[in-house]
Design brief:
single chain; 162 residues; mainly alpha; two-stranded antiparallel sheet; 2 strands; 70% helix; elongated
C-alpha cells in the first residue's frame, strides 16, 4: 500500500483533471447557449427576461434539447467519482473517504478553471447552479467553496487514513 501522502497526491491529480474537464464542458454549454462569459446564472436569466427558480434551468435545457444530455453528464460525473472510489478503496469507509475527498477537489478545481476560462464566478456571492439532479439546486458560490468542500476534504482525508 502506498503512503497516504502519495495516495492523496494522486487523488488530487485525478480530481483536478476532472475539474478541468468538467469546467471545459460547462464553458462549451454556456457558449452553445449564447450566455455571456463571467455572468452568474441570476444575471444570465435577467438578460433573457427570466427569473431564477428551480424549474427555470430544466425548462431552458429542455427547450434547447439539452436536458437529457445535461442530466446524463451530471450522472456520469457522479458515477465516475463513485466508480473510482469503489475500485480504489479497501473498506466502505475508505471508499467513502476517497469519494468525498475527490468530489471536493473536483468541485474546487471546477470553480478555479471556470474562473480562468470565462471569469466565472466574479465573486463568492455569484449565483451558481450546483446540480440538476434530482431537481435544480442553486445558490451562492461561497456555500460549496467555503463550507461544504472544506468539510468534505477533511472527512475524506480522515476516512482514507483509517
Amino acid at each position: 500500500m502506498r503512503p497516504v501522502k502519495e495516495r492523496l497526491f494522486w487523488w488530487i491529480v485525478f480530481g483536478t483533471a476532472f475539474g478541468l474537464t468538467e469546467a471545459a464542458l460547462v464553458v462549451y454549454v454556456r457558449h452553445l447557449l449564447g450566455w455571456t462569459p463571467g455572468l452568474d446564472y441570476a444575471q444570465l436569466l435577467a438578460q433573457q427576461g427570466e427569473t431564477l427558480g428551480w424549474r427555470t434551468f430544466t425548462e431552458i435545457f429542455a427547450r434547447e434539447q439539452l436536458l437529457g444530455l445535461e442530466v446524463a453528464r451530471e450522472a456520469g460525473t457522479l458515477l465516475l467519482l463513485v466508480g473510482a472510489a469503489m475500485a480504489a478503496g479497501r473498506t466502505g469507509r475508505e471508499r467513502a473517504g476517497i469519494f468525498l475527498f475527490t468530489f471536493a477537489v473536483w468541485d474546487l478545481t471546477y470553480y478555479l478553471f471556470l474562473y480562468v476560462f470565462i471569469g466565472f464566478p466574479q465573486s463568492l456571492t455569484a449565483t451558481d447552479v450546483y446540480f440538476l439532479i434530482p431537481i435544480t439546486w442553486y445558490g451562492p458560490v461561497w456555500f460549496p467553496v467555503c463550507i461544504v468542500m472544506p468539510v468534505l476534504l477533511i472527512w475524506g482525508m480522515r476516512w482514507m487514513q483509517e
